[in-house]
Amino acid sequence: MCGVSSRRKADELIKSGHVKINGRVEAELGRTVDTDRDMIEVQGRVIEPEVKRYLILNKPKLYLTALGEGQDEKRTIEELIRDIPQRVYPVGRLDYDVEGLIILTNDGELANRVLHPRYEIKKVYRAIVKKPIDDSTLEMMKKGALLEDGPAKPDSIKVIKRGKDSTTVEICFHEGRNHLVKRFFYSFDNPVRQLKRISIGPVSLGGLPRGKWRSLAESEIKNLYEATGA
Fold this sequence. Notes:
Number of helices: 5
Shape: elongated
Distance between the termini: 18 Å
Helix content: 10-25%
Structural class: alpha+beta
Radius of gyration: 21 Å
Largest sheet: 9 strands, mixed
């Protein structure tokens, strides 16, 4: 949270004697400190927590949900948030070809709670699938599907628009398994053509333009904390 290192690297710094708390070398991993009272030094430099930042990004397609350099010259979302002075991290991820809402923050506790299945934070997606979905198939989808890594049942699913060769569907899951929405529809022999995440818990994308970010309002941050029981 202070922009010094990863958690794994932090353990290495502590083990090698490069971390002091209140002037004394700290050898214990996982030591709890009070950032308002304790002074923490890393390799002789006093460390202070960063200002907490909470924001959302409307990720375009063909961007990796990653910070730093992309793979095979692929662009990453770091290009879209370079004007943010704090080091923020994406809460979860979206596939390279998926667009929509990503929460970014340097509040590790909140990030972990949003991701943890225990708190059942619902993620809503707008999907365009390649084939029509009739009422009987929709009822089957509501009952869930058996995927290779276990059953998957949406919290809700509804048809938004029926086309001749496609259907627009709004689907909600509180799980975070890889490619869950794509695999769910594929199990019904109806591949996803386009996919966009439009909300995470009480936070919605709204009219935020593609590729842009905004800070969360205090009310949105409060609602996120309340949704995770924090």
